Amino acid sequence: MDWNRFFMTGCIYFFMTMAAAGQADGELKQDKDGIKVYTKKMDNSPLKAVRVVCTLNTSLSTLTAALLDIKGSTDWVYETRKASLLKQLSPSELIYYSEVQIPWPVSNRDFIILLTVSQDPRTKVVTVAGHNKPDYLPEVKNIVRIQKSYSKWLITPLSKGQVKIEYDLQVDPGGNVPAWLINMFAAKGPYETFKRLREQVKKPAYSRVSFPFIKD
Predict the structure, then answer these.
(1) β-strands 27-32, 35-41 pairing
(2) pTM attached to this predicted model
(3) Of 18, 58, 61, 86, which one's alpha carbon is 20 to 30 angstroms from that of 139?
(4) How many CB atoms are closer than 10 A to CB 196?
C-alpha cells in the first residue's frame, strides 16, 4: 500500500515526478495545511524523487491499520481507481495491486507492491517499505505496468497523540508522459493524498486495531 498504493502505497500520484532541469535537491513544491512536498534529484536518472513531510493526530497502530487496509486506499490515495490485496504473507507483510486513473490521452498505470512493516523496539519508529513486484501478475491490456519503484515511510511517535511522517518515493512511470501531467501529479497528488489520509485515520474502525508488531 503506496502505498504507492500508495499511492503505494501507494500510489502513482507520486509516480509522475518532474524531470531534472538543474534544480536543487530537496526543492519545496508545496507547503500547505502542514503538508510539505519536495522533489529531489535521483542518482543516474532524469526523474526526481518525491518526499512528503507532515504531522498527523493519530497513533502508530491507527496509521498502520490505515496503510494496511488496501481496499480502503481508494478513499484517500490520489486517483486510485482500484486496489486489491493479492497475498497476506504475514501480519506485517503483504502483496497488493493498484491501478491509478490518468487523464486521457495517457494510459492508466498499475503496480504490484510487496509492503513490509517493522518497528524499532527502542525508538518505536515504524518503517513501511514498498518494493516493486512488476512480474507477480501478467500485465493488463491497455494499462502500463510500473516497472521501477521504491517507497518508504518513516513514522515517528510524538507527544500528545501525534506522529510525524516522512515519506519518500522513487518511481519511473514509464511510457511517454506529457510535462503538464508530470507537474500536476508531482505537486497536487501528494498534497491531496496526505490531506485525505488525515481524515482517513479518523475512522473508528482503525482506532480499534492493534498489532503484535507495533507498540504505541
Answers:
(1) antiparallel
(2) 0.84
(3) 18
(4) 13
